[in-house]
Amino acid sequence: MAEEEESIRPEFPIGRVKKIMKLDKDINKINSEALHVITYSTELFLHFLAEKSAVVTAEKKRKTVNLDHLRIAVKRHQPTSDFLLDSLPLPAQPVKHTKSVSDKKIPAPPSGTRRIDDFFSKGKAKTDSA
Prior knowledge:
mainly alpha; Histone, subunit A; 6 helices; about 0% strand; transcription cis-regulatory region binding; nucleus; protein heterodimerization activity; Histone-fold
């Protein structure tokens, strides 16, 4: 029986999962068995999300899974939606072209001062004095 337990290896790199877990300041030590369980659980959860997203993609008659398909799949599964939906990026909104800061006329800074942009740009003069 011990050999069967050893043969189950998650596809995710265990070392990387451990590093991610250690990012939490409350976690000092990680038990080997707990690390394997969390790694395997993460793998199973991502397979679940991929399968549900693929179903939505097929329903939409698309070949590529996108963020909208993932959001729909998460919304359909209540337990997943409860904790994950708020963490997903919002769907892409159509971008309306508005005047950017560079399109607007910006008055010259007062004498002896400079714009904050000049501070962060390399190779430009510190002040525009004439």
